[in-house]
Design a protein that fits this description.
Blueprint: H1 3-7, H2 10-15, H3 22-28, E1 37-38, E2 44-45, H4 53-58, E3 60-66, H5 76-89, E4 94-98, H6 103-107, E5 115-116, E6 119-122, H7 124-128, H8 134-154, E7 171-173, E8 183-185, E9 196-198, E10 200-202, H9 207-214, H10 218-226, E11 229-232, E12 238-240, H11 241-244, H12 247-252, E13 261-265, E14 270-273, H13 288-297, E15 300-304, H14 309-324, E16 330-335, H15 337-343, H16 356-375, E17 380-385, H17 392-404, E18 408-412, H18 414-417, H19 423-435, H20 450-462, E19 466-469, H21 471-483, E20 513-522, E21 527-532, E22 551-552, E23 558-559
Parallel strand pairs: 3-15, 3-16, 4-14, 4-15, 7-10, 16-17, 17-18, 19-20
Antiparallel strand pairs: 1-2, 2-13, 5-6, 6-13, 8-9, 11-12, 13-14, 20-21, 22-23
Helix pairs in contact: 5-19, 8-9, 14-16, 15-16, 16-17
């Protein structure tokens, strides 16, 4: 362990870094000062006219995913940033493109989501908190629609005849607040509106977030918002946002949020951060615009997809790539010794202790994710994200198993050494890129039935034996057919803690049944959302939230945000 690793936290490292002015970062990738929309010295918005399809076609896209995550954390974002640093160290101009952190996890479990150690994006505090206000704009657009729906139900003029019992649109806020999952609105007599049951989702799960991340420009954003399904009239006719005439105002609230955000890594390389859907309850990747922006600016782009390859990577490939038309040339699967031991049965509190038996048993989880990547016709590269507690013997066991499977593998030490600690990984990734000669293959065709698409992901990706559709899900299938969503992709909401829909099933579960409780529809975003197990779209806070460890002094210095 290095000296700097023992006494500096992620936050201290970020606060002690001499940042370049954002103008320098922009100039390094050919953006003039006039094209930047400044947010202080270290953040800027990028105009959409910088997206260049010719350059995108020539750029190399690298996706970073992971094995099934654990409470200990695997460092996928840290690896993504470190890999971009490593590529730049090797003389390959690269940009890292990431999602924006949600305040829910920041104040809940994680305490921050901008990488770590010497593989961070900065200014870390700004990125983790309000950043450039994108999440706030998405909240406002979402909640404007909620207010307009209730107002239309209440008014006697211009009333669309919406049956309030059919309205599924919920309000959102960027906070983990279980008390708002289910609420009653409209109390207070006639002037208070029509009383009905509703609730809140977290902003990251809003369909507005999904639409922003799939839109190609302002006009496309407006059209997608107009296609959002609201509910039915009393005579059973579907009602959409365009029927309310709300798409113009909602899009106006998003006119700045649709532009990607330019920041930097600790080593002064470009980083684009935009959009923030969770991968367990949404599509789990940054915006198409942000990824295309990165590919327009540099020959190499590293991007990440949330949680394991069964969630973020599956949705990246089957949804995002389908709409965007690009294809990754290498897929990195992040693994850690402690995660493998956890999936092999070692207790969380003992993960720092050497245990080769549990490590070997846990390799089954990693192997399944490697098989998942191969399903798409892309050869994976394993990144062993090393922690100080990992023994040399444990690391070698992982490397040897990958070699036996014919998988490229490298140890990543970006947390401790930044780009210098990831050049080996970058070299292996470049080899994989050179060997990639075909675009990826999706796991299912969009033309298949919704049931067949769900079963394809459940059986091929999760490893399920069968799928059970509960009564509400069967009812939802009829509505999907009526509204005309059968030919769209699916975005399954599933626990991130297991390949199955049971978070307690670690390792590589087999012969299990995936239970689809209900299927939500996202007509604007253009996909259906099967809800499995006990998944909720408004998380709650843990017993000891990260927020209680945070503080700020009179000079504005924040502590505890890492």
């Amino acid at each position: 362990m290095s000296t700097k690793q023992t006494y500096k936290s992620d936050l201290e490292i970020a606060q002690s870094t001499d940042l370049k002015h954002i103008k320098e970062i922009a100039q390094s990738v050919g953006i003039s000062e006039d094209e930047l929309e400044m947010y202080g010295k270290y953040k800027a918005k990028l105009p959409l006219n910088l997206v260049n399809e010719e350059k995108i076609a020539q750029s190399t896209l690298i996706l970073v995913t992971a094995m099934t995550p654990t409470p200990a954390g695997e460092g996928k974002t840290t690896t993504s940033i470190g890999l971009a640093e490593g590529l730049n160290k090797l003389g390959k101009q690269a940009t890292v493109v990431l999602r924006e952190p949600s305040l829910g996890p920041v104040f809940g479990m994680k305490g921050g989501a901008a990488g770590g150690g010497y593989s961070q994006v900065v200014p870390m505090e700004d990125i983790n908190l309000h950043f450039t206000g994108d999440f706030a704009a998405i909240e406002k657009a979402n909640n404007l629609l909620a207010a307009l729906i209730d107002n239309n139900i209440q008014t006697k003029t211009n009333n669309l005849g919406i049956d309030p019992r059919t309205v599924e649109w919920k309000r959102v806020m960027d906070m983990n607040d279980r008390g708002l999952r289910n609420i009653v609105t409209g109390m207070g007599g006639k002037s208070g509106g029509m009383m009905r049951e509703t609730g809140f989702n977290i902003t990251a799960a809003s369909e507005i977030m999904a639409i922003l991340c799939l839109a190609k420009d302002i006009e496309d954003l407006k059209q997608k918002i107009g296609n959002i399904y609201i509910g039915d009239t009393y005579d059973g006719k579907a009602v959409f946002v365009k029927d309310l005439g709300a798409q113009g105002a909602m899009t106006a609230l998003l006119k700045e949020a649709i532009k990607p955000n330019l920041v930097q890594t600790l080593e002064g390389n470009p980083a684009i951060i935009h959009g923030g859907p969770f991968a367990n309850i949404a599509q789990g990747t940054n915006s198409i615009i942000a990824t295309k922006m990165g590919m327009s600016l540099t020959p190499y782009v590293v991007t990440e997809a949330g949680f394991g390859a069964d969630l973020g990577a599956e949705k990246f490939l089957n949804i995002k790539c389908g709409y965007a038309g690009f294809s990754p040339k290498a897929i990195v699967v992040v693994a850690t010794v402690r995660a493998l031991k956890y999936h092999g049965g070692q207790k969380l509190e003992n993960l720092k202790e050497k245990n080769t038996m549990h490590l070997v048993k846990g390799l089954a989880n990693l192997e399944k994710h490697l098989e998942n990547v191969k399903l798409y016709g892309v050869q994976p590269v394993v990144s062993v994200n090393r922690f100080s507690s990992d023994s040399d013997e444990e690391v070698e066991i992982v490397k040897e198993r990958c070699t036996e499977l014919g998988i490229k593998v490298a140890v990543s030490e970006g947390w401790e050494h930044g780009g210098e600690g990831t050049t080996q990984l970058a070299s292996e990734v470049l080899k994989a890129v050179e060997e990639c000669t075909q675009p990826y293959k999706p796991v299912y065709e969009w033309s298949w039935s919704i049931e067949d698409k769900i079963e394809a992901v459940a059986r091929k990706v999760y490893g399920a034996r069968e799928v059970e559709f509960l009564p509400k899900a069967k009812q939802n299938l009829k509505k999907i057919a009526r509204i005309g969503l059968n030919d769209k992709p699916i975005c399954i909401a599933k626990t991130q803690s297991s390949l199955s829909d049971d978070p307690n099933e670690l390792g590589r579960p087999q012969n299990f049944t995936l239970t689809v409780r209900e299927i939500e529809i996202a007509t604007g975003a253009g996909f259906c959302i099967p809800i499995t197990g006990n998944m909720l779209r408004m998380p709650g806070l843990p017993a000891v939230p990260a927020a209680v460890q945070m503080d700020i002094d009179n000079d504005g210095k924040i502590s505890g945000l890492s």
